[in-house]
């Protein structure tokens, strides 16, 4: 056995060694396959190279990249930072490394030649990644700064990569592909291995990234989606699991950027400018700014989480920082899913800036970021957000979007470009720098550099724009201008507008100069070509209409005999027109040139026919080849040609296809006169088509179908057509710009117009292969450079010479900027056309022609109207003449009417005109009404009343009302009531709910059980009561009612007394109020400025209360101002009445003075007038006459000199007001101009008349004096009232100014409170939620406790009922029941009962187990087994045993059923109680937790209130003080700094000093009161003890009296309120009747009992006699025994033993008989005693009679055997049984 173990151990050791060796080999192989860290690839072996036609002599380095002048700013994430000075970005097929400081560029070409999809940098900045595009593209990892390829990742996608990114530590790389696979791949890039790979989604993916906080989480986003990824371990290995984000009810949006948060949430941007907070895969909340404003205008991208704030950029050019904690804890309200907040920091980068991506500086703790601007710029941003933060710096500026125009100077190394970004740029491509940039209101669409024939200096540019404007721009060197004093020109070049004109209404697509430089042609997408004369000023010649939008213009070269223009249209039309004659007669109505000769061509596709012919030729060649092979085989075999080969079925030839719509035309050029080459796109790409104009030009150009007469196939261009073509100056190089962004160069033979030598080519991918269509390619003036511009926004320059040779040949050359023209600095800048809706040249001419026609029509209309006026005048004269004739000769109106239909027609026309005029003026009328209402609202209705100024009569004092704006209704949110009381209401409502729930419902089973235990006695029929009984019932009811009323009154008195009785812990409200005031005002009170100051709850201030306080103050101010205005207006009204009264008195005085002599006249006082400012409301009052006068003045002004509308209306109003004043003065003069009567002089009067005149004079003088005195008194009184009111208003002004200062303070506090409102509201909302939750839990706990208490009560009741049931059972058994033990076992027997509702499964088993356990607990103390009796026999409870009462047995079974019911109820109640107890414990724990949470929230709220109070303490309050009020003096002078001073109210200070004395007096008073209260308290305690003793004595006496009267304690009130009960009386009557019947029956039974007693006595006597005889016999027996004993000595031994045994048995029998009889006698005595106590006559129970005494046996009897005594007993028992019956 030991040997076997040793062998097995050896085998295991060998197997282990083998496994180790295998693992070592695998590890060695794996280590061999693992890539070393220092392994690199050769860049030259990887980078893409030009493609050259095989066997051609074209050199590989035909073109050398010189410089890149652009930046593809529209590409996503196209900016990365390698180090502090080097930026990297993609430019077409190049990777550009740009040095920020030196602006030098280094380039890396795409390795696939298909372009670069995305770039990123390693976190360590030691590597950067270029993810390429093409067929099965690779990811190249370059090392920096050596730029050597370090790793190549293969097989990640099919066509292109859209985004790549490293994880946080740089160990993994994530890439996502574009269409068609959208593959998401995770790479172990150091080993060039794919870790995980799966399809991301079937939509474009913009970005994918690792979470910086959890390396196993990723996020991707893109077109209308966001997806959350997780690297999960499954049983098959590591897998990528993606979860798509659900937008829910929100509209789906493209997500450009997002940021992962530390807790796993993600914040993403949207199209509309808000942020989305994602929790899981659902939107938790949408984040916006206050009042629903968006976070950014347009697209928003979060990009970083820095220093507690989330940074976002937007297409509005703004960088904002948001509070991270607020975003992380953001939650929406129930109404909306939005969360409103404001940014913490903000930086506006610039206008017209669209930020799309940012990258951070590599320096540690740096706040420098570099931003990609989609508008064509790179910015440097400092996001430290401090006071010293510098402004954003624009490092580089480029074109944005496709390059629309490019041309080069014909004299220097200058290049000009334009794009839709509204800029024109000029570059020096020799020095590789930008010279100047000019910006305009619209984007540029075409550009051409004027040839030297037009501008000798070579500085004129013609640029077309998208609004149809053509601008002539002069390029000059500002350094060569004559410098004006104090001004120095800047820059090396500058563009100046020379002329601007608008020939088109759509974008200008082409401009071209005629070969002699005399005419400029412009083409547009509006299907027109305009011609201009070239000169100092360009003048329009005219335009021609073409069949389609213009694609290009080309003038015929000098080699052609005629000067013609070739117009290429995008729709495939080609039009050739002759050059217009500038000196020809120009049409006056339009610029259209109708008679300009020309011819047209419409391209018809021939590609399908070419393909068909190629297929036919191929098949023919294949057949010919097969035929030759067959002939050769026949020759070799030398057999006759008898065998025929089966002809193969040929496939159907490709059909002839004509594309619809036609293929677009891209470019074209002349070959020979009347012939031209075309390059088509779409279906017809792949060929150059040689075309010519047909001789038949009569057809409609749109209906023509012209086919090329020749074609030239272009290699590998079926899907890559030629977009642009240019030739070198010697036409030996044909340069083609391709649709795929590549450059092709063909070598041509001289004078090869048919392009027969266009075979070999050189091609290089330059621009982006997908969207970088190369539409512009040019050669420099000396053919040393080639310049390209594409739709990807990139501009490249290439040199035809190697850099070394180019440097040598051009070392002394440089680009020359033209010198400015002489006098340029003094010329006025040409007027530009800035309005995009400005008229074009043709539209303006058409408008002038329409204006001329309109003027002619108006002149004709005026002439017609003049003739009509003359005819109307003649007709009126005829009517007047007719009226002057006699009536019998006069013509009637009907006779004068020529035709009734004329009048009807005129009326119809008039009504139609009226309706049309109303319709035309409807909008104007509505506008005028709206304008009037707005003016009224602004100038009149905006004020509550006009400003009234009251002027004193004799002084210059003035009094003006306050200018009160109309009171706007306060918003609803200012008036809303606080909802803070809701928790209290909930708390108040909770007890009601608990009360309603706590009402116990009586259990139906319990009711049923009570009915079983206490069955109702069935009542017999009603018994008729007698009159006395009825009267007794009535009196008893009255007495009970009186007692009940008395008791109720006593209860009310007691209730009132108890209500007035204070609680034992109750305190006097006055004392409570005094204590609260003392706590608030006495002791160590914290100042509001103290850090530990706690604001009391009733003094806490929030924005709502402060707003209410501010509104209250505003209302108070307004009330004061309104009251003062009312008083001033009342004073004004009194002045108006006074003026009218004074005028009346002045008239009366005038009348009096007319009757007095002149020397007796006293001068009247100057009468006051009501000034216009005192009654401003009259300015808006007008009458019909006023309006009519205004109309007349307005018409007069129109007839006069034309003036400005506003000035004229103002003057009209002033003139109208002046005339109204003059009319009023005239009225006054007319009233005063009454004839004055004077006393006639020189007439002699009698003495009586003189006396009467003297009396009259005295009376008039008195009346004159009275009137003057009244007038003077009235004016003085008015001035006094005005002066008094003025003083009051000044005092009110002072108060209002203080109120304004207070209002300013309140507003500052309101602004401060608003800042805290959000935090406070959120905390208050949380607190209310906690309080509500606590109240809910408390109410549930109380409810549960009440239910538990009720359950416990129910359990106690059930237990009591169970005890009562057992007692009832024992009572039913009675005493000495021989079946008691059996019935007890039956009663306590456990039986398994069938449930009413069957339970299933575990519930049934659980219930059974619980029931069994409870039953076991109940019967643990029992000493018997329920299934068997003591002897082990089974207990049969189905049959009543013999000797047991059947009724008692049935009653026992019923009681057992009741017991079992009670036990089941008890078990259920205990279970319910246990569940309620557990629930109570759970709720108690929850309540404790909720209380802790509430306390935490209250502490947070308290901190916020403290912080808010501290901020409010920092606010400055303005307190105006006079010098005498300042008592803060240092060295007998007021210090300049009063900040440590304390401002107090003097009255308040005096009150406080007086309060000190009052408090001392109050202290003594309180001490005396305390002493008196203490004595009274002791006395009250003694009195209470005495009263308690007295109450106990009285209670004892009452109980004793109650026991004496009633025998027990009863409820006296219940006795007093007992009224007559008819039912009770009926029962009493019935009882009496039954008692009578029962008494009669009892008498009968008494007689029978008496007879039985007598029989019993007889039997007893008989028995007594027998007992006496027995006694005698015993005595005889003793004697005989004595004798026998004496004789026994003589008898034998046998007889003695037998006799002794027989005697002993007989003695025992007799003793048992005596014992039995004594027991029966004792039982009879007890029964007799019991019956005698009850007073009833009940027969005793029938007991078996005692057996008679048997006679002593004789020897003869002994011989008969032992059966004889039993027979004697039977005989004796028979008469006793008979007697008992």
From TrEMBL:
<dbReference type="InterPro" id="IPR036322">
    <property type="entry name" value="WD40_repeat_dom_sf"/>
</dbReference>
<feature type="coiled-coil region">
    <location>
        <begin position="1542"/>
        <end position="1576"/>
    </location>
</feature>
<feature type="compositionally biased region" description="Basic and acidic residues">
    <location>
        <begin position="622"/>
        <end position="641"/>
    </location>
</feature>
<feature type="compositionally biased region" description="Polar residues">
    <location>
        <begin position="1771"/>
        <end position="1781"/>
    </location>
</feature>
<dbReference type="GO" id="GO:0007288">
    <property type="term" value="P:sperm axoneme assembly"/>
</dbReference>
<feature type="compositionally biased region" description="Acidic residues">
    <location>
        <begin position="1225"/>
        <end position="1245"/>
    </location>
</feature>
<keyword id="KW-0206">Cytoskeleton</keyword>
<feature type="compositionally biased region" description="Acidic residues">
    <location>
        <begin position="642"/>
        <end position="653"/>
    </location>
</feature>
<feature type="compositionally biased region" description="Pro residues">
    <location>
        <begin position="1742"/>
        <end position="1754"/>
    </location>
</feature>
<keyword id="KW-0966">Cell projection</keyword>
<keyword id="KW-0175">Coiled coil</keyword>
<feature type="region of interest" description="Disordered">
    <location>
        <begin position="1218"/>
        <end position="1245"/>
    </location>
</feature>
<feature type="compositionally biased region" description="Acidic residues">
    <location>
        <begin position="1401"/>
        <end position="1428"/>
    </location>
</feature>
<keyword id="KW-0282">Flagellum</keyword>
<feature type="repeat" description="WD">
    <location>
        <begin position="396"/>
        <end position="437"/>
    </location>
</feature>
<keyword id="KW-0677">Repeat</keyword>
<dbReference type="Pfam" id="PF00400">
    <property type="entry name" value="WD40"/>
</dbReference>
<feature type="coiled-coil region">
    <location>
        <begin position="1707"/>
        <end position="1734"/>
    </location>
</feature>
<feature type="region of interest" description="Disordered">
    <location>
        <begin position="970"/>
        <end position="1003"/>
    </location>
</feature>
<feature type="coiled-coil region">
    <location>
        <begin position="854"/>
        <end position="881"/>
    </location>
</feature>
<feature type="region of interest" description="Disordered">
    <location>
        <begin position="1"/>
        <end position="35"/>
    </location>
</feature>
<keyword id="KW-0853">WD repeat</keyword>
<comment type="function">
    <text>Flagellar protein involved in sperm flagellum axoneme organization and function.</text>
</comment>
<dbReference type="InterPro" id="IPR001680">
    <property type="entry name" value="WD40_rpt"/>
</dbReference>
<keyword id="KW-0597">Phosphoprotein</keyword>
<keyword id="KW-0963">Cytoplasm</keyword>
<feature type="coiled-coil region">
    <location>
        <begin position="1459"/>
        <end position="1514"/>
    </location>
</feature>
<protein>
    <recommendedName>
        <fullName>Cilia- and flagella-associated protein 44</fullName>
    </recommendedName>
</protein>
<comment type="similarity">
    <text>Belongs to the CFAP44 family.</text>
</comment>
<feature type="region of interest" description="Disordered">
    <location>
        <begin position="1737"/>
        <end position="1781"/>
    </location>
</feature>
<keyword id="KW-0969">Cilium</keyword>
<feature type="region of interest" description="Disordered">
    <location>
        <begin position="1397"/>
        <end position="1441"/>
    </location>
</feature>
<feature type="coiled-coil region">
    <location>
        <begin position="1313"/>
        <end position="1368"/>
    </location>
</feature>
<feature type="compositionally biased region" description="Polar residues">
    <location>
        <begin position="1"/>
        <end position="11"/>
    </location>
</feature>
<dbReference type="InterPro" id="IPR015943">
    <property type="entry name" value="WD40/YVTN_repeat-like_dom_sf"/>
</dbReference>
<feature type="compositionally biased region" description="Basic and acidic residues">
    <location>
        <begin position="972"/>
        <end position="1002"/>
    </location>
</feature>
<feature type="repeat" description="WD">
    <location>
        <begin position="501"/>
        <end position="534"/>
    </location>
</feature>
<feature type="region of interest" description="Disordered">
    <location>
        <begin position="622"/>
        <end position="657"/>
    </location>
</feature>
<feature type="coiled-coil region">
    <location>
        <begin position="1023"/>
        <end position="1057"/>
    </location>
</feature>
């Amino acid at each position: 056995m030991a040997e076997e173990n040793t062998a097995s151990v050896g085998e295991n050791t060998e197997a282990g060694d083998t496994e180790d060796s295998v693992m070592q080999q695998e590890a060695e192989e794996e280590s061999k396959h693992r890539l070393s860290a220092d392994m690199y690839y050769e860049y030259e072996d990887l980078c893409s190279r030009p493609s050259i036609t095989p066997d051609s002599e074209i050199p590989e380095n035909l073109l050398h990249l010189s410089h890149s002048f652009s930046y593809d700013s529209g590409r996503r994430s196209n900016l990365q930072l390698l180090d502090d000075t080097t930026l990297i970005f993609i430019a077409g097929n190049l990777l550009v490394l740009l040095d920020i400081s030196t602006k030098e560029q280094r380039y890396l070409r795409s390795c696939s030649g298909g372009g670069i999809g995305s770039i990123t940098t390693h976190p360590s900045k030691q590597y950067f990644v270029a993810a390429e595009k093409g067929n099965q593209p690779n990811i190249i990892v370059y090392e920096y700064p050596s730029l050597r390829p370090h790793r190549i990742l293969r097989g990640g996608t099919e066509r292109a990569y859209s985004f790549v990114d490293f994880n946080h530590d740089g160990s993994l790389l994530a890439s996502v592909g574009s269409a068609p696979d959208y593959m998401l791949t995770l790479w172990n890039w150091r080993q060039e291995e794919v870790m995980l790979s799966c399809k991301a989604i079937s939509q474009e993916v913009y970005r994918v990234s690792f979470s910086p906080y959890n390396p196993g989480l990723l996020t991707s986003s893109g077109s209308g989606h966001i997806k959350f990824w997780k690297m999960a371990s499954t049983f098959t290995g590591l897998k990528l699991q993606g979860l798509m984000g659900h937008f829910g009810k929100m509209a789906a949006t493209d997500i450009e950027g997002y940021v992962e948060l530390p807790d796993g949430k993600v914040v993403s941007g949207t199209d509309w400018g808000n942020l989305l907070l994602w929790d899981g895969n659902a939107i938790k909340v949408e984040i916006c700014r206050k009042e629903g404003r968006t976070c950014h205008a347009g697209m928003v991208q979060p990009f970083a989480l820095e220093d507690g704030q989330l940074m976002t950029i937007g297409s509005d050019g703004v960088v904002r920082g948001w509070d991270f904690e607020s975003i992380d804890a953001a939650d929406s309200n129930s109404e909306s899913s939005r969360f409103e907040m404001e940014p913490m920091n903000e930086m506006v980068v610039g206008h017209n800036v669209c930020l799309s991506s940012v990258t951070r500086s590599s320096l540690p703790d740096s706040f420098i970021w570099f931003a990609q601007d989609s508008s064509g710029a790179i910015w440097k941003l400092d996001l430290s957000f401090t006071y010293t933060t510098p402004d954003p710096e624009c490092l580089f500026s480029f074109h944005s979007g496709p390059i629309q125009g490019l041309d080069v100077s014909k004299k220097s190394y200058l290049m000009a470009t334009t794009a839709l970004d509204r800029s024109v740029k000029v570059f020096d491509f020799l020095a590789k720098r930008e010279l100047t940039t000019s910006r305009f209101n619209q984007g540029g669409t075409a550009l051409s550099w004027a040839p030297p024939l037009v501008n000798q200096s070579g500085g004129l540019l013609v640029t077309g724009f998208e609004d149809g404007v053509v601008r002539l721009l002069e390029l000059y060197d500002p350094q060569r201008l004559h410098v004006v004093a104090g001004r120095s020109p800047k820059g090396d070049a500058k563009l100046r507008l020379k002329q601007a004109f608008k020939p088109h209404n759509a974008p200008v697509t082409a401009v071209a100069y005629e070969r002699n430089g005399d005419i400029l042609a412009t083409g547009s997408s509006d299907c027109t070509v305009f011609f201009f004369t070239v000169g100092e000023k360009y003048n329009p010649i005219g335009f021609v209409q073409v069949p389609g939008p213009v694609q290009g213009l080309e003038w015929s070269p000098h080699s052609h005999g005629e000067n013609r223009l070739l117009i290429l249209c995008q729709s495939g039309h080609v039009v050739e027109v002759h050059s217009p004659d500038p000196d020809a007669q120009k049409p006056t109505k339009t610029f259209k040139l109708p008679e300009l000769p020309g011819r047209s061509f419409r391209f018809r596709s021939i590609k399908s026919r070419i393909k068909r012919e190629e297929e036919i030729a191929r098949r023919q060649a294949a057949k010919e080849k097969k035929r030759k092979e067959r002939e050769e085989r026949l020759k070799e075999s030398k057999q006759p040609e008898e065998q025929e080969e089966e002809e193969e079925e040929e496939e159907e030839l490709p059909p002839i296809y004509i594309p619809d719509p036609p293929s677009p035309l891209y470019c074209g050029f002349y070959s020979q006169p009347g012939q031209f080459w075309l390059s088509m796109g779409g279906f017809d790409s792949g060929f150059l088509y040689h075309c010519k104009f047909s001789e038949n030009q009569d057809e409609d150009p749109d209906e023509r179908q012209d086919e090329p007469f020749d074609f030239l196939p272009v290699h590998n261009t079926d899907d890559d057509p030629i977009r642009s073509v240019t030739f070198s100056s010697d036409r030996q190089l044909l340069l083609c710009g391709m649709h795929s962004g590549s450059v092709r160069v063909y070598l041509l033979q001289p004078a090869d117009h048919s392009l027969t030598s266009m075979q070999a080519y050189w091609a290089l991918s330059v621009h982006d292969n997908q969207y970088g269509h190369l539409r512009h390619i040019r050669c420099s003036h000396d053919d040393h450079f080639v310049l390209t511009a594409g739709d990807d926004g990139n501009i490249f320059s290439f040199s035809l010479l190697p850099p070394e040779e180019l440097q040598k040949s051009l070392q002394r050359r440089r680009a020359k900027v033209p010198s400015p023209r002489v006098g340029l600095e003094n010329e006025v800048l040409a007027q530009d056309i800035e309005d995009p809706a400005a008229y074009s040249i043709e539209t303006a001419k058409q408008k002038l022609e329409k204006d001329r026609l309109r003027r002619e029509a108006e002149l004709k209309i005026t002439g017609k109207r003049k003739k009509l006026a003359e005819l109307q005048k003649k007709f009126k004269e005829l009517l007047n003449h007719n009226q002057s004739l006699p009536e019998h000769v006069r013509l009637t109106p009907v006779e004068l009417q020529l035709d009734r239909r004329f009048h009807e027609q005129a009326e119809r026309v008039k009504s139609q005109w009226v309706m049309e005029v109303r319709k035309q003026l409807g909008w104007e009328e509505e506008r005028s009404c709206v304008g009037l209402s707005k003016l009224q609202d602004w100038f009149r209705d905006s004020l509550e009343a006009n400003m009234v100024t009251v002027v004193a009569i004799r002084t210059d004092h003035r009094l003006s009302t306050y200018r009160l704006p109309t009171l706007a209704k306060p918003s609803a949110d200012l008036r809303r009531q606080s909802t803070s009381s809701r928790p209290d209401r909930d708390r108040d409502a909770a007890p009601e709910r608990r009360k309603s729930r706590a009402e116990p419902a009586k259990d139906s089973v319990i009711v049923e059980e009570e009915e079983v235990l206490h069955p109702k006695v069935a009542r017999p029929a009603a018994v008729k009561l007698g009159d006395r009984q009825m009267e007794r019932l009535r009196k008893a009811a009255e007495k009970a009612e009186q007692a009940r009323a008395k008791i109720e009154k006593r209860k009310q008195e007691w209730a009132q007394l108890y209500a007035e009785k204070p609680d034992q812990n109750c305190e006097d409200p006055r004392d409570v109020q005094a204590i609260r005031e003392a706590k608030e005002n006495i002791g160590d009170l914290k100042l509001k400025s103290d850090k530990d100051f706690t604001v009391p709850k009733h003094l806490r201030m929030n924005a709502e209360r402060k707003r209410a306080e501010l509104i209250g103050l505003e209302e108070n101010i307004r009330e004061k101002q309104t009251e003062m205005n009312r008083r001033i207006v009342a004073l004004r009204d009194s002045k108006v009445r006074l003026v009218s009264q004074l005028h009346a008195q002045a008239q009366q005085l005038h009348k009096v003075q007319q009757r007095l002599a002149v020397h007796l006249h006293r001068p009247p006082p100057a009468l006051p007038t009501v000034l216009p400012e005192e009654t401003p409301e009259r300015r808006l009052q007008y009458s019909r006459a006023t309006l009519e006068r205004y109309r007349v003045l307005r018409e007069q002004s129109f007839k006069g000199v034309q003036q400005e509308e506003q000035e004229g209306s103002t003057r009209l109003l002033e003139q109208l007001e002046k005339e109204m004043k003059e009319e009023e003065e005239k009225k006054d003069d007319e009233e005063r101009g009454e004839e004055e009567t004077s006393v006639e002089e020189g007439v002699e009067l009698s003495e009586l008349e003189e006396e009467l005149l003297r009396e009259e004079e005295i009376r008039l003088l008195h009346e004159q004096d009275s009137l003057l005195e009244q007038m003077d008194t009235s004016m003085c009184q008015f001035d006094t009232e005005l002066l008094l009111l003025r003083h009051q208003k000044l005092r009110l002004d002072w108060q209002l100014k203080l109120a304004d200062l207070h209002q300013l303070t309140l507003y500052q506090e309101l602004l401060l409170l608003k800042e805290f409102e959000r935090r406070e509201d959120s905390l208050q909302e949380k607190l209310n939620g906690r309080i509500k939750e606590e109240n809910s839990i408390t109410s549930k706990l109380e409810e549960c406790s009440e239910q538990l208490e009720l359950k416990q009560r129910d359990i106690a009741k059930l237990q009591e009922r169970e005890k009562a049931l057992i007692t009832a059972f024992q009572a039913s058994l009675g005493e000495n029941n021989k079946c008691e033990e059996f019935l007890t076992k039956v009663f306590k027997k456990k039986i398994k009962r069938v449930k009413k509702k069957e339970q299933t499964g575990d519930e049934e088993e659980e219930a059974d187990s619980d029931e069994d356990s409870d039953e076991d607990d109940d019967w643990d103390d029992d000493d018997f087994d329920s299934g068997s009796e003591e002897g082990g026999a089974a207990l049969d409870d189905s049959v009543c045993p013999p000797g047991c009462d059947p009724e008692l047995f049935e009653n026992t079974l019923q009681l057992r059923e009741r017991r079992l019911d009670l036990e089941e109820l008890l078990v259920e109640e205990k279970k319910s109680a246990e569940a309620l107890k557990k629930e109570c414990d759970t709720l108690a724990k929850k309540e404790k937790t909720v209380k802790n949470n509430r306390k935490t929230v209250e502490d947070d709220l308290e901190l916020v209130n403290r912080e808010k109070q501290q901020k409010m303490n920092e606010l400055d309050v303005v307190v105006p003080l006079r010098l005498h009020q300042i008592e803060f003096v240092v060295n007998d002078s007021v210090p300049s700094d009063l900040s440590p001073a304390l401002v107090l109210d003097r009255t308040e200070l005096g009150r406080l000093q007086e309060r000190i004395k009052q408090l001392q007096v109050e202290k003594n008073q309180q001490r005396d009161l305390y002493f008196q209260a203490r004595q009274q308290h002791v006395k009250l305690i003694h009195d209470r003890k005495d009263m308690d003793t007295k109450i106990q004595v009285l209670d004892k006496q009452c109980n004793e009296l109650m026991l004496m009267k009633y025998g027990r304690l009863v409820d006296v009130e219940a006795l007093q309120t007992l009224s007559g009960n008819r039912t009770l009386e009926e029962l009493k009557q019935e009882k009496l009747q039954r008692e009578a019947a029962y008494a009669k029956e009892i008498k009968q039974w008494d007689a029978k009992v008496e007879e039985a007693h007598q029989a019993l006595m007889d039997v007893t006597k008989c028995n007594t006699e027998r007992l006496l005889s027995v006694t005698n016999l015993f005595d005889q027996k003793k004697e005989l025994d004595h004798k026998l004993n004496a004789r026994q000595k003589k008898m034998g031994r046998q007889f003695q033993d037998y006799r002794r045994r027989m005697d002993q048995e007989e003695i025992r029998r007799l003793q048992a008989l005596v014992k039995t009889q004594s027991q029966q006698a004792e039982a009879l005595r007890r029964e007799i005693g019991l019956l005698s106590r009850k007073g009833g006559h009940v027969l005793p129970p029938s007991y078996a009679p005692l057996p008679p005494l048997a006679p002593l046996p004789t020897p003869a009897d002994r011989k008969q055997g032992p059966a004889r005594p039993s027979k004697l007993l039977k005989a004796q028992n028979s008469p006793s049984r008979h007697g008992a019956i």
